[in-house]
């Protein structure tokens, strides 16, 4: 995400509707990342030991 933010800032800062453009680009770029994370959590939570640190983190992430 930091690369996306930097590219947007460099390219669109001068536009009057910078915040609208930024919102649209963030939405386009972040949704696939979040969907991938949700899929990862759903798969790996089944493999993780419930009381391990990883199991606790995955359980917490799933609640979000």
Q: Give the mean pLDDT.
A: 86
Estimated radius of gyration: 17 Å
Total individual domains:
1
Shape: rod-shaped
Low-confidence stretches: none
Terminal CA distance reads 19 Å
Number of strands: 0
Task: Estimate the strand proportion.
Answer: under 5%
Main sheet overview: none
Q: Please, how many helices?
A: 3
Helicity range = over 70%
Structural class, by secondary structure, is mainly alpha
Query: Can you write the helix and strand succession as a string?
Result: HHH
Task: Break the fold down into its secondary structure elements and pairings.
Blueprint: H1 2-12, H2 18-47, H3 53-63
Helix pairs in contact: 1-2, 2-3
Question: How would you characterize this protein structure?
Answer:
With 64 residues, the chain is an all-alpha fold. The chain has one domain (2-63). The protein contains 3 helices and no strands. The chain has helices at residues 2-12, 18-47, 53-63. α1 (2-12) runs antiparallel to α2 and α2 crosses α3. The two termini are 19 Å apart.
